[in-house]
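re: that chain from earlier
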Amino acid sequence: MNAPPTARAERVDTLALVETPEGVGLSLQPAGLVARTMAFLLDLLIRLVVDLGLLMALGAWGGLGMGLILLGMFCVEWLYPIVFELSRWGATPGKRAVGLRVVMDTGLPVTPAASFTRNLLRVADFLPLAYGFGIVAMLLNRDCKRLGDLAAGTLVVHAEPVVLNDTPPPAAPLAPTRPLSAREQAAILSWAGRAKRLTPARFEELAQMATAVLPPVKADDPKRDTVERLMGVAQWLMGRRA
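^ sequence. v structure.
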């Protein structure tokens, strides 16, 4: 019995191309240190306001009030991010305000176990002071992951879809040499749509990685380089046949 399909992720430049179990291709843009810091500061402000509200509301209740305040502060500190990450938004209010969300490395919604793990390890990220280890980990990791993300297999990404594709340059359509997976189709179309955004050298370098999908050159074929031929495959994938 075959195992159920799982989502897969592949790197193309600064974007993660993900193919879900349903065969849907997604483009995820990992959030950088600045955006994540802004989200953290907003969430910190919200938590401080809630903590202050607890102090004002329960401070006069004596020992019982102090116990409730400590319990409330504990819940705000540890359950606040988990509850919001497991909501339909997949993000705390601070992350939502900045336009971020938490997902699994595969692009799927974050699981309870992963959310618990990434937030529990905030203790390690905080060391030795002011999230020192977490910041160093984000600076050294291409996906800007802190230690909690690395352990949980999670990714903080920009929630809005990444607009990759301008209109690809015209080219004579060319059928690929074999059927392409959804992941391969997404990669080729993303490459074609970035013709105006990449340097010619980088554009050609990426095209060389896809030569396996190009049919053999026939003697009577018009002379076209790899970039032109792969652009033809992109046009074919977009539905052009002539």
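DSSP finds ten helices and five strands in the chain.
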